[in-house]
Structures are given as structure tokens and as C-alpha cells.
């Protein structure tokens, strides 16, 4: 036996059986639901004069709620209404699906040493900062081969580091002249 779902004039699925709606809800992702793109006219009720959805969002029907909403596109956070409805996810985050929500709806890149452009919509847009190389979804520090002091010479300073952008200085032993640069940068 079937139970009628509560529906109203603004419901995306009016007069459907609850069983049918439950089948549709199987597609819900962990983020709280999927959204089906609808004609913008369904969202005109949210403002006077129509055209309520932000240009970086669309009128969508929530598969869980069955309610029309202005929803920001992937890569953008906010609640989708004009004038300030959708803001790009900041550097170092991404948002792969359309959903309403605050800044927390943008997911941080998997490694703290990763960056992504503003408005990123996929984890593949997260790349390692300079000085790191990507190994799967994490970043490792780039290291140069360890240097040895030159023949008839020595390092200046206490330590010659082999980390990215570190600089090592050289000096010659007494009686020898330096040929080339007096330092090298990793």
C-alpha cells in the first residue's frame, strides 16, 4: 500500500507516491542530496520581477526535499540568490557538486601543501605548491641531490641544505681560485 507524500504547489514532485520519491532519493550523495536543473521560472517566487538566481547558479529541484531552489554551480558556495548569491570557492578548496551552503561546502585540497584556483570544481585542480611534487593525492618536498664540497674547497656557512630553493656557498682553500659561481641554488 502506498502513502501519499505531502506536496504543495511549489513542490517539484507534486502528487507522487512516497514510494516513487523514495526510489529517487536512493541517488542521494553524502553531501545531502542531488539537484535537477529546472527552468528558472520555478524560482521566480523568491524575488519580485523574476530572474532571482545568481548568474553562477541555476534553479534546481532538490531530489530529497522536492523543493525548487536557486543553487550555486560546482566551484561556488552560497545560497544562489541575487545579488551576492554565489562566491567562488577560495584558493586551496574545491566543490564538485551543486548545492547550497556556506564556505564550509567547499572541500579543502587533500594536502595542506596543495593549491587550487578560485572556483575549482574538481580535486584534480589541486596541485602542489612550488617546492613540492605530487605523489598520488599528497605532496612531498622536492630535494636536490646532496652536494659535496668541491675539491680543494669548502662550503661557506654551517650547513649546505638540499631543500628546494636553499642556497649553498663555496670558497676555495688557500692557494686556489674559484672558477664559476660562488653559490648554487636547489
UniProtKB/TrEMBL annotation:
InterPro entries: Growth_fac_rcpt_cys_sf, Sushi/SCR/CCP_sf, Sushi_SCR_CCP_dom, Tyr-kin_ephrin_A/B_rcpt-like. Keywords: Disulfide bond. It holds the Pfam family Sushi. Residues 86-126 form the Tyrosine-protein kinase ephrin type A/B receptor-like domain. Gene3D superfamilies: Complement Module, domain 1 (2.10.70.10), Tumor Necrosis Factor Receptor, subunit A, domain 2 (2.10.50.10). Residues 144-186 form the Sushi domain. This is Uncharacterized protein. It comes from Ciona intestinalis. The lineage of its organism: Eukaryota, Metazoa, Chordata, Tunicata, Ascidiacea.
